[in-house]
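My current task is to audit a protein record that another person submitted. I have pasted the whole thing underneath without changing anything:
***
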Amino acid sequence: MEYTHVFHTFEPVFDHNSDILILGSFPSVKSRENQFYYGHPQNRFWKVTADIFNEPIPGTIEEKKQFLLRNHIAVWDVIASCDIIGSSDSSIRNVTANDMNVILKTADIRKICANGDKAYRLFLKYCRKEGWPEVVKLPSTSPANAACSAKRLVEVWKSELTAARSRP
């Protein structure tokens, strides 16, 4: 496979009530095809978050947006454009980052959660600024992270999302 220069083509999901920002690295091929976050059927993001909030797994893009907003979650990706081979995070190069102020100036974000190590490292390298909320690295919900069970994902994610909400 060859490198392709790809642009992020769908908007972040957030409103002024969002208090947790969950960041991925860059949309997978499936997510780019579907024009929405975590579109690969084996990605566990929707199952994990639905489990945490005791809700049914949202199916349509509109249901997913409403689920996120109802639970005060903002979702975006660190990268606006990059060179990538397929969906491989390890192949990412030539990065242009998204402007996090788009969300941080509107929403009352208390914690930034990176969905996986690559999103975390990219955020620290390209986006992190003084005075911004705490950023934590969560285990990736990607099917590539098969070493982490669904149960473990729910435990770790729930702990971090709950902690963000328990502070004044």
